[in-house]
Amino acid sequence: MGYQILAVDDEKEIIKLLKLYLERDELTLYEAYNGKEALAVLEEKQIDLLIVDIMMPEISGFELIKRVRKNSNIPIMVISACVESSDRIFGLELGADDYIVKPFDPLEVVARAKALLRRFNTLGSNKETALSQILVGELKLDTYACTVQNDGGEIIELSAVEFRVLKLLMENPGRVFTREQIFEHGWKDEIVSDNSIRVMMSKLREKIGAEKIKTIRGLGYRLEKSHEGS
């Protein structure tokens, strides 16, 4: 298949068992033993499926899912000893696609992993990719690949915050968003100053063209539908 899977668990025996069964099906497995290590692997490798435990040092599984979902829609499977329905519901609401309780049957994990990969790379890559293009004027934003292009097809390099804010504006051209709404969408739970928002918006306007985003004094910002005016 050629798929690459990242398994994150602080129990080495669990990782060893998953590796044994997954690699029998020609699925490449990368290992991490806490959430911090997992984020480093995700930065370096093209991961197709994340398998994550909940109770881990450094960064918990719930927090890891939350962070991954800010920038990626890869399939996520939870394998955890947390058996409460509230834990399962919370994990799924955060963005997990499947939840398996320990102890588990490794053959079931393999079957579910293959099902998630198959569904994501057929329905996901065709239907979702077709719906992932947002076009406003000469700008094209791809929510699947997390890229933004100008009319010449050149990729515009944006930070994660800039991308999230531009996505919000492009999904709602002509609508005014307050600084508070932009903060909530761009920075999530981080704490930043009003000046940080102004600086980010200034950089974003510089990158995509100052005339595209209009400052509405005393209210906020909007993306111009026709890109006319400043």
Automatic annotation (TrEMBL):
UniProt keyword Phosphoprotein, yes or no? yes
Domain (Response regulatory) ranges: 4-117
Tell me yes or no: is Secreted among this UniProt entry's keywords: no
- Residues modified to 4-aspartylphosphate: 53
PROSITE patterns per the record? OMPR_PHOB (PS51755), RESPONSE_REGULATORY (PS50110)
Q: Give the UniProt keywords, A-Z.
A: DNA-binding, Phosphoprotein, Transcription, Transcription regulation, Two-component regulatory system
Question: Where does this protein bind DNA?
Answer: 131-225
In this chain the OmpR/PhoB-type domain maps to: 131-225
Database matches in InterPro entries? CheY-like_superfamily (IPR011006), OmpR/PhoB-type_DNA-bd (IPR001867), Sig_transdc_resp-reg_C-effctor (IPR016032), Sig_transdc_resp-reg_receiver (IPR001789), WalR-like (IPR039420), WH-like_DNA-bd_sf (IPR036388)
Q: Which Pfam families match?
A: Response_reg, Trans_reg_C
Task: State the name under which the record lists this protein.
Answer: Response regulator transcription factor
Please give the organism: Enterococcus larvae
Q: What is the lineage of its organism?
A: Bacteria, Bacillati, Bacillota, Bacilli, Lactobacillales
